[in-house]
Design goal:
- By secondary structure, the chain is mainly alpha-helical.
- About 75% of the residues lie in helices and about 0% in strands.
- It starts with a helix and ends in a 10-residue tail after the last helix.
- The relative contact order is 0.11.
- The model is unreliable at about 1-10 (pLDDT under 50).
Length: about 400
C-alpha cells in the first residue's frame, strides 16, 4: 500500500532529533527560561544587579513569565496537538527551527539594551506569537478542524494582550490591561484544553485500572461554567476590584470547583501523571475565588489569586502536560518516575509558598517559592532534556 507523502516525509525525517517535533525545542526552552527568568529575577529584586532591558524589572519579570516561558509552552503543546486534531504533517526541521529562533530573538530583544529602538524590540517579541498563530491557523483551516477555532481565538487574544502590554509600557512605563489579558487568555486555554484532557486521561486510566465512578462527560454544565468564567474574566480585565467583577469571579470559581469534582480525580492517586492534572486544575477555581473575595475584603490580597493562576494553574499544568507529552511522544512508558514526582512536588510548593507570601508579606516565603520554582523547571530541563534532545521520535523508522 502506498504511503501518503506527508507520512513518508515524517517517517523519513533525518534531521536533529530536537527539531523532529514541536514539543521538543519548545518544552525545553520553556523550562529553561522559566528557571532562568526567576533565578535572574531574585537578585534583581534584591537590588544586587540591574537589568539592561528597557522595561522595569517587575515589568520584565511579568512579561517573560507570561509572553516568554508560557508562550513557549503553549507553542510546544499546539505544535504537537494540531497534527492530531487535523491529521496533517507536524512542523519539523527548518520551519520549526525558524519559529524557535523567532522566540529566542524575542527573549534577547526583551532583555538586551534597546540599542535598536524600543519599538523594534516590541515588534520582534510580538512576531513569535503572530507567527505561531499564522502557522496554527493554516493547519486548522487546511484540516477543516473548525472545533479548534476557539483555541485560535484565545491565542489571538493573547497576541492582542502582548501588543497592549508593549503599548502601555512604551507610553506609561508600566503594563496594566496587557497583564490581565495575558493571564485571562492562558486561564481560558487551561479551562478549554484542560477541560478536554483532564477528564479524558482520567477516564482512560480509570477504565483500564479501576471499576466504579468515572468522570462526567462534557455537558451543558461544562459549557455554562466556561461561559460564566469567560464573562467573569472579561469583567476582571475591564474593572478589577469592583463588586460586579468580584461577584462574577466567585460564581465562576464555584462552578469550576464543581466541574473539577465531577472528574473523579480523587480516584487517581495511584497515577501521579493523571492526579497532577487535577491538582493543577484546582488552582483555576482557587484563583477565581481568591480574586473574587479580594473585591469584598482587604484581608484577601488580589495577588494571592493572581499567583494561584500563574504559579499554580499555569506552572503546574505546563509541567504536567510537558512531562506527559514528552514521555508519550518519545515512546517512553506513561509513568511518573521518582524524579518526575519530585518535580511536581517542587511546583506545588512553589505555588503554595507564593500564594501564602501574598498574605504574609515577608521575604522568606517569596525566596522559598522562587527556589522551589527553579528546582521544578530546572529539574524538568535536567531530567527531560536528554530525552528531548537525544531520543529519536517514537515513529522513526516505522509507519503507524
Amino acid at each position: 500500500m502506498a504511503i501518503p507523502a506527508a507520512l513518508s516525509r515524517r517517517r523519513d525525517y533525518e534531521g536533529p532529533v530536537l527539531l523532529s517535533a514541536g514539543f521538543r525545542p519548545f518544552f525545553l526552552a520553556a523550562s529553561i527560561w522559566a528557571a532562568f527568568g526567576v533565578a535572574l529575577w531574585v537578585p534583581v529584586y534584591l537590588g544586587m544587579i540591574a537589568l539592561p532591558a528597557r522595561l522595569s524589572p517587575l515589568e520584565w519579570h511579568i512579561h517573560e513569565m507570561l509572553y516568554g516561558y508560557t508562550a513557549a509552552a503553549i507553542a510546544g503543546f499546539l505544535l504537537t496537538a494540531i497534527p492530531n486534531w487535523t491529521g496533517r504533517l507536524p512542523v519539523n526541521g527548518m520551519p520549526l527551527a525558524a519559529l524557535a529562533a523567532i522566540w529566542l530573538a524575542g527573549r534577547i530583544a526583551m532583555l538586551a539594551p534597546p540599542v535598536a529602538g524600543t519599538v523594534a524590540a516590541a515588534a520582534i517579541d510580538i512576531a513569535f506569537l503572530a507567527s505561531l498563530f499564522a502557522l496554527a491557523a493554516r493547519e486548522v483551516f487546511a484540516g477543516k478542524n473548525w472545533r479548534n477555532l476557539r483555541v485560535l481565538a484565545i491565542v489571538g487574544v493573547l497576541i492582542a494582550g502582548n501588543v497592549v502590554f508593549h503599548y502601555e509600557t512604551l507610553s506609561a512605563g508600566r503594563a496594566d490591561y496587557g497583564v490581565r489579558v495575558a493571564i485571562a487568555s492562558v486561564i481560558g486555554l487551561i479551562m478549554l484544553i484542560g477541560g478536554r484532557i483532564v477528564p479524558s486521561f482520567t477516564h482512560n486510566w480509570l477504565a483500564k485500572n479501576r471499576s466504579g465512578r468515572l468522570p462526567k462527560p462534557f455537558s451543558t454544565f461544562d459549557a455554562a461554567a466556561t461561559l460564566v468564567a469567560a464573562v467573569a474574566l472579561a469583567c476582571w480585565i475591564a474593572a478589577p476590584g469592583q463588586p460586579l467583577s468580584g461577584g462574577a469571579l466567585l460564581v465562576a470559581g464555584a462552578l469550576h470547583l464543581l466541574r473539577l469534582l465531577r472528574w473523579a480525580g480523587d480516584r487517581t492517586l495511584a497515577d501521579p501523571l493523571v492526579f497532577v492534572l487535577h491538582v493543577a486544575y484546582a488552582f483555576v477555581p482557587a484563583g477565581f475565588l481568591l480574586i473574587g473575595t479580594s473585591a469584598f475584603s482587604d484581608a484577601v490580597p488580589a495577588s494571592a489569586g493572581i499567583h494561584a493562576w500563574t504559579a499554580g494553574a499555569v506552572g503546574l499544568m505546563t509541567l504536567a502536560v510537558m512531562t506527559r507529552a514528552s514521555l508519550g511522544h518519545s515512546g517512553r512508558p506513561l509513568a511518573a518516575s521518582r524524579a518526575t514526582q519530585v518535580i511536581y512536588v517542587f511546583a506545588v510548593l512553589a505555588a503554595a509558598a507564593r500564594i501564602s507570601a501574598a498574605f504574609e508579606g515577608g521575604l522568606f516565603l517569596l525566596y522559598f517559592s522562587a527556589l522551589a520554582w527553579i528546582a521544578a523547571f530546572g529539574g524538568f530541563a535536567l531530567v527531560y532534556g536528554p530525552l528531548l534532545i537525544g531520543k529519536p521520535p517514537a515513529w522513526q523508522g516505522r509507519v503507524r
